[in-house]
Design a protein that fits this description.
This protein has about 180 residues and is α+β, with helices and mostly antiparallel strands. Helix content is about 30%, strand content about 35%. Strands 1-7-6-5-4-3-2 form a seven-stranded antiparallel sheet, with helices on one face.
Length: about 180
């Protein structure tokens, strides 16, 4: 199932070209199994150093994500934009009020034979980030620099934890 958001009107744009990244890992597990783990956003809290989980709205397209950094906790409204079983799962963070697209997070799954999957996590800050944050470009860039460091550190951590869980699940299924 491919879910596409409505056309986006960008108002006050920030140059976000430096705020995107990809990180990959090979998981000894079938692509569909890994996809199903990721699609259940409540699982994210077990893997991510920032995200503590998520809860889908009844429509299954929107969810509320929960996050913590140190003593700061916040929620974000997110919309699933791609849900292709065993291929890709992606969502856009629309900020606390769900008003403007701010950050796109995704997971791509590439089957490597019958029992392994390359999982690539993606992170891309969108041009309306400053407006969604409710700040000017200069202040937004300061926040973005901090978020970039956290994403670059956090994505490999998230993938390593996802790998450990998916492979544990494989071992449990095989009775090892």
């Amino acid at each position: 199932m491919q879910v596409r958001p409505p056309a986006i009107r960008y108002v006050r744009a920030v140059d976000t070209s430096a705020y995107a990244s990809r990180s990959s890992i090979v998981v000894e597990q079938r692509a569909m199994t890994v996809y199903l783990l990721v699609r259940d956003v409540s699982n994210m809290g077990r893997w991510s150093p920032v995200c503590t989980g998520g809860t889908y709205d009844p429509d299954g397209e929107w969810f509320t994500g929960t996050n913590v950094i140190g003593d700061s906790a916040w929620e974000t409204r997110c919309r699933v934009v791609t849900a292709e079983p065993a291929r890709e799962f992606a969502f856009v963070n629309y900020g606390p009020q769900g008003r403007l697209p701010m950050v796109r997070w995704g997971f791509e799954f590439s089957a490597l034979g019958d029992s392994a999957t390359e999982v690539t996590q993606t992170w891309e800050v969108l041009p309306t980030y400053a407006e969604g944050l409710g700040t000017d470009e200069e202040s937004a860039v300061g926040v973005l620099e901090m978020m970039k460091v956290m994403a670059l550190r956090g994505m490999p951590e998230t993938l390593a934890a996802l790998k450990a869980e998916a492979e544990f699940k494989r071992d449990a299924e095989q009775g090892d």
